[in-house]
Amino acid sequence: MIARAAxxxxxxxxxxxxxxxxxxxxxxxxxxxxxxxVSCDRxxxxxxxxxxxxxxxxxxxLLPSPHCARCGHPTEGRACRFCATLPPFVxxxxxxxxxxxxVGSAAVHALKYHGWTATARDMGARMARLAWPADVxxxxxxxxxxxxxxxxxxERGFNQAALLAxxxxxxxxxxxxxxxxxxTRATGTQTRLTPGERSANVRHAFEVPGDPHGASARMRGLxxxxxxxxxxxxxxxxxxxxxxxxxxxxTISYITFGRARASGDR
Length: 266
Ligand SMILES: [Zn+2]
Ligand SMILES: [Zn+2]
Description:
Elements: H1 2-9, H2 20-32, H3 54-58, E1 90-99, H4 102-114, H5 117-128, H6 134-139, E2 140-145, H7 150-156, H8 160-172, E3 182-183, H9 195-202, E4 206-207, H10 215-219, E5 223-231, H11 235-246, E6 251-260
Parallel strand pairs: 1-6, 2-5, 5-6
Antiparallel strand pairs: 3-4
This protein binds zinc ion (2 copies).
């Protein structure tokens, strides 16, 4: 009994990745679904590999310059107000485009609700081109996708943040560690919550699995980059960053495809 109990504590706390059957079904659907742009419904040309047409990609609402060197938020020449919401151990944050916006939101929706890996590839390629402070480029050691709850991941069959991290990992030549962080409880949709309620809702909802020879040992002293599809108030990313910092990571940066406007942003 003792041996059994001891071995049980070493069992992974995260859910298994989607079955081979589920993944091959998705790959087949990728091929069979009508090839139209998820944003404008125009038929895609054969040289347009993803699910957003090149015209729509050119219309993406990129975050404008000048922007804050730390958090990437447009400043319009004023002092940054968004940085104050970031924990001190967060070095930098970058996002490609504003959401909601027709093109950016369509890409996020296609990724999140259909798991189209071609979309993740296109989004990851754009995330990979974002400019960072030189120390972040020099130090970034691994990509950590924001985890879903096990139930949500089982329902969806994949974690959209992990798909983006995989795409980004190939561009940056930095590993993705999808098992480094787990969501310890479901937090529900945050859509209708105020920023303060969001922070309270996700506080202590993430942890680095407790194996002393596993994740926490390998991340000690490192600069890690958290990956998510959208940054809204930052509550979820901040809760994830706190868990990584408590586990020994020294510095954390954020990268997301979309970013929600804060009050005052144009
Ligand atoms: Zn289009
Ligand atoms: Zn800032």
